[in-house]
Amino acid sequence: MKERTPADPLRGEAAFRAQKAEIAKRNESARADGAARRAAKEARISEQQVADDRRERSNLPHQPHP
Questions:
Q1: 60: helix, strand or coil
Q2: Residue 64: per-residue pLDDT
Q3: In whole angstroms, what is the distance from residue 66 CA to residue 64 CA?
Q4: Alpha-carbon gap, residue 39 to 33, rounded angstroms
Q5: Sign of the Cα pseudo-torsion (32, 33, 34, 40, in order)
Q6: d(CA 6, CA 56)
Q7: Please, which residues have CB within 8 angstroms of residue 10's CB and are 6 or more apart in sequence?
Q8: Separation between Cα atoms, residue 14 and residue 3, nearest integer Å
């Protein structure tokens, strides 16, 4: 059987599988980037909500103690 040299381009099914693997790798990378961005955005939103809640509680009237 003849061995391929790196200069020989892939053909047919091998080319298809290589392209499919490359696309899957890019998709996984994009998915990980998206998850990191979503986590950072949700953390900022959560911090903002905590600050808003704290500010709102500080403006509430206090009940008198007998």
A1: coil
A2: 86
A3: 7
A4: 10
A5: positive
A6: 66
A7: 18
A8: 14
- Report residue 40 as tokens: 């950072």
Which are the contacts of 18, defined by CB distance < 8 A and separation ≥ 6?
10
The residue type found at 34 is G
Q: Has this prediction a pTM greater than 0.90?
A: no
Q: How far is CA 52 from the centre of its chain?
A: 26
Dump pLDDT digits (tens) for 20-38: 999 999 999 999 999 999 9
Entry field: residues in the chain: 66
Residue 30 identity: A
